Amino acid sequence: MANTAQARKRARQAAKRRLHNMSLRSELRTAIKKVRKAIQAGDKAAAEAQFRQCVSTVDRIADKGIVHKNTVARYKSRLAHAIKAMA
């Protein structure tokens, strides 16, 4: 355990940040799952609407540094390709 006041404070801050980052990462995963669910349902209009919301969410989370921008770009690319492949 931390021995100095500074180290104790840093441990508190790290725990608080970890919880916040976990909630944002969960929000990212949920947004992606909603798009995948719409794609599985076969509803292209709903999938596109969910995709637009998802892009906004994942970009905001990437800007905060929770996940890397290239990771988000890969997610968006794969989802867009899956929506485009729907006939």
TrEMBL record:
Nucleotide-binding as UniProt keyword: no
Keywords: Ribonucleoprotein, Ribosomal protein, RNA-binding, rRNA-binding
Molecular-function annotations in GO: small ribosomal subunit rRNA binding; structural constituent of ribosome
GO terms for biological process, alphabetical: translation
Family recorded in the similarity comment: Belongs to the bacterial ribosomal protein bS20 family.
HAMAP family: Ribosomal_bS20
Function comment: Binds directly to 16S ribosomal RNA.
The protein, known as: Small ribosomal subunit protein bS20
Source species: Pelomicrobium methylotrophicum
